[in-house]
Specification:
The chain has about 500 residues and is an alpha/beta fold. It is about 40% helix and about 20% strand. It binds nicotinamide-adenine-dinucleotide. Nicotinamide-adenine-dinucleotide binds near residues 235, 392 and 394.
Length: about 500
C-alpha cells in the first residue's frame, strides 16, 4: 500500500500538528480508495520517526497550559465541538461513506454513537471530582485528585472512522491531556475534519494532533518516552503487539482487538424476531463491525431447520450497493484485498464440508464493476474445526453452526479465542440467566442483537478481544486518562500537636 508520490490526479493529504495542516515529509504515502468505485481518491502521508518526534514535542509543550485550564473552560470547548459535530453530520457521513464504503444511514448512526461519547465527556467536571476525608488522624485531612497523564496517543481502525476516534480521544482531552490521533491510513479524512472542528471550537494548538501513518508511526509512538498512554483499536494480532510493546516501554495501554460474535437461538425464541435481528447485526456495514454477529448458533436440530428456512429468503433479498444508494442495505468492503480474503474463507469452508445456502461471491452491481462489492453469503453446517468458524471474517460471509444444548453453546463460545460480544435469543429467563452468568464474553445481549453499551457505560471485550484493562466508553475512560494523587495535609496553627519525631509506622490512632 506504500507508494512514492508520483500520482498527480489524486489529492495529497496532510497531518495536523501544532494547530496547522502540515505536509508529510517522509515521501511515503498510502492510497485512500473509494470502495464504492474502486478509485484512488487521495494519498495519505505516512509519518516518519522524525515527524512523530516533532508532533510529540509540540504536544508536550502545549500540555501544561491545557492541564491548568479550568475543567469548566475545557468542557466549554468540548460542548462547542459537540454542536459542530451535530451541525456537520451530513458532511461527516459523506466523508465516511466515500472512504469507508458504508451507507449514509449507517454512517449517520455511527456519528450519533460517537456524539454520545462526546456528550459523556461534557460530564468531566463531575467525573474528575476526587475524594476527601477530614481528620483521618492528628488534624490531618486526606484527599485524592485526578491529574492528566500528559501526551497520550490513540490509534484507530478503518471500520468506524468517526465513532471510535471520538470515543478514544474526547474524554482524554476533557481530562486535560494532549492527544495524538493516528487514524487508519485507509480512512484519514474524518480525523482531519475533526481537527478543523476542534480549531473552530477554540481548542488550543497542539492539544489535538492528527498524525497520519502506518506501522512506523505506531511503533515510534509505542517506544516514545514522552507518550504516557496508548489507546488502540484494531485487529487482534496488532492489538497484542501494541499491548506488549507499549507496556514494555512502561506505558498504560488499552488495546481492543477483533471479535467473533455468536448469536445463540434457543428453541423457545421468537424466530421472526431472531431472524430480523440477525440480518441487521450480521450484515450491516458489510459485516465490518467488531460487534457484528458472525455465527448463528441454533440449539437443537428443529430450531436450526426452522431458523435457516426463515432466514434464507431474507438474506437473498439483501441489497449491496454504493454508499449513497438509499436502497442499499450495506455497502462495499474496504479493499479488493479484503474482498479476496472473504472469498477465500468461503471457498475453503466449502472444501471442509460447509454448505452454501446463499452465495454472495459475485453480486450483480450496476453502479460500478470496480467497487469492492460482496453480496451476502450464508453458510450452513459449519463446525468449530473450520477456519471460517475460528477466525474473524471481516466481510458479509456469515455462518450457521448448530449445537445440541445450551451447555454445548456456552462451552464452544467460552473456548473461542475471541470474547467481544455475544447474544442469546430466548423467552426463558432461567436460560438467559445461566447464559449471562457463565459466558466468558465482555458484552452480552439478551434478545438484543448488538449489545454495544451506551456512551456512559464501559465498553470492552474479554480474552483475545482486549489486552490491558482500560476502557473506551464510560467512566473507566476517566480512570484510564488520569492518574490519581492522594494528598495528606496538616496545617499546624497551634501548639497542640507534639513536635516529636515518630519512628513507628504512621497510624490513625
Ligand atoms: P488493523 O489492526 O489493521 O489497523 C488498526 C490500526 O493499527 C491502524 O491505525 C493501522 O495503521 C495500525 N496498524 C496496522 N498494522 C500494524 C502493525 N503491524 N503495527 C502497528 N500498527 C499497525 O485493523 P483494521 O483493519 O483497520 O480494523 C478492523 C479491525 O479492528 C477488526 O479486527 C475489528 O474487529 C477491530 N475493531 C475492534 C473494535 C473493538 O472495540 N474491539 C472496534 C472496531 C474495530
Amino acid at each position: 500500500m506504500t507508494i512514492v508520490n508520483n500520482e498527480t490526479t489524486t489529492k495529497t493529504l496532510t497531518h495536523f500538528i501544532g494547530g496547522e495542516l502540515k505536509a508529510g515529509k517522509s515521501d511515503r504515502f498510502g492510497k485512500v480508495y473509494n470502495p464504492s468505485t474502486g478509485e484512488v481518491t487521495a494519498l495519505c502521508p505516512l509519518a516518519s520517526k522524525a515527524e512523530v518526534n516533532e508532533a510529540v514535542e509540540i504536544a508536550q509543550i502545549a500540555f501544561p497550559a491545557w492541564k491548568n485550564t479550568s475543567v469548566a473552560k475545557r468542557v466549554e470547548v468540548i460542548f462547542k465541538f459537540r454542536n459542530l459535530l451535530v451541525e456537520e453530520t451530513d458532511r461527516l457521513a459523506e466523508i465516511i461513506g466515500l472512504e469507508n464504503g458504508k451507507t449514509l444511514s449507517d454512517a449517520k448512526g455511527e456519528i450519533q454513537r460517537g456524539i454520545e461519547s462526546v456528550d459523556f465527556a461534557i460530564n468531566a467536571p463531575h467525573l474528575l471530582k476526587g475524594e476527601y476525608s477530614v481528620n483521618v488522624g492528628g488534624k490531618i485531612n486526606s484527599y485524592s485528585i485526578k491529574q492528566p497523564l500528559g501526551v497520550v496517543a490513540a490509534i484507530s481502525p478503518f471500520n468506524f472512522p468517526v465513532m471510535v476516534p471520538l470515543a478514544m480521544t474526547t474524554m482524554a482531552v476533557a481530562c486535560g491531556n494532549a492527544v495524538i490521533l493516528k487514524p487508519s491510513e485507509r480512512v484519514p479524512n474524518s480525523a482531519l475534519y475533526f481537527a478543523e472542528l476542534w480549531k473552530k471550537a477554540g481548542l488550543p494548538d497542539g492539544i489535538w494532533t492528527v498524525l497520519n501513518g502506518d506501522k512506523e508511526a505506531v511503533d515510534t509512538l509505542l517506544a516514545h518516552p514522552k507518550v504516557a498512554a496508548i489507546s488502540f483499536v484494531g485487529s487482534t494480532r496488532v492489538a497484542e503487539h501494541v499491548y506488549h510493546e507499549g507496556t514494555r516501554h512502561n506505558k498504560r495501554v488499552a488495546a481492543f482487538g477483533g471479535g467473533k460474535n455468536h448469536m445463540v437461538i434457543m428453541p423457545d425464541a421468537d424466530l421472526d424476531q431472531a431472524v430480523t435481528s440477525f440480518l441487521g447485526a450480521a450484515y450491516g456495514s458489510a459485516s465490518q463491525r467488531c460487534m457484528a454477529i458472525s455465527v448463528a448458533m441454533p440449539v437443537g436440530k428443529g430450531t436450526a431447520e426452522a431458523f435457516v428456512a426463515k432466514l434464507k429468503s431474507r438474506v437473498e433479498e439483501l441489497k449491496v450497493g454504493a454508499y449513497d444508494d438509499a436502497d442499499a442495505d450495506f455497502g462495499a468492503v474496504i479493499s479488493q484485498e479484503s474482498k479476496e480474503t472473504v472469498i477465500k474463507y468461503i471457498n475453503e469452508s466449502l472444501g471442509e464440508g460447509a454448505q452454501l445456502c446463499v452465495d454472495g461471491r459475485n453480486p450483480k452491481i450496476s453502479e460500478t464493476e470496480k467497487g469492492f462489492y460482496l453480496g451476502p453469503t450464508l453458510l450452513t453446517g459449519v463446525t468449530p474445526d473450520m477456519k471460517i468458524y475460528q477466525d474473524e471474517v471481516f466481510g458479509p460471509a456469515r455462518i450457521v453452526a448448530g449445537v445440541n444444548s445450551l451447555d454445548e453453546a456456552i462451552q464452544l463460545i467460552n473456548e473461542h479465542e475471541y470474547g467481544n460480544g455475544v447474544t442469546i435469543f430466548t423467552d426463558n429467563g432461567a436460560a438467559a440467566r445461566k447464559f449471562t452468568e457463565e459466558i466468558e464474553v465482555g458484552m452480552v445481549g439478551v434478545n438484543v442483537p448488538i449489545p454495544i453499551p451506551v456512551g456512559y457505560h464501559n465498553f470492552g471485550g474479554w480474552k483475545g478481544s482486549r489486552f490491558g484493562e482500560g476502557q473506551m466508553f464510560g467512566p473507566d475512560t476517566v480512570r484510564f486518562f488520569t492518574k490519581t494523587k492522594t494528598i495528606s495535609e496538616r496545617w499546624n496553627n497551634s501548639k497542640e500537636i507534639e513536635n516529636k519525631t515518630e519512628f513507628s509506622f504512621p497510624s490513625n490512632k
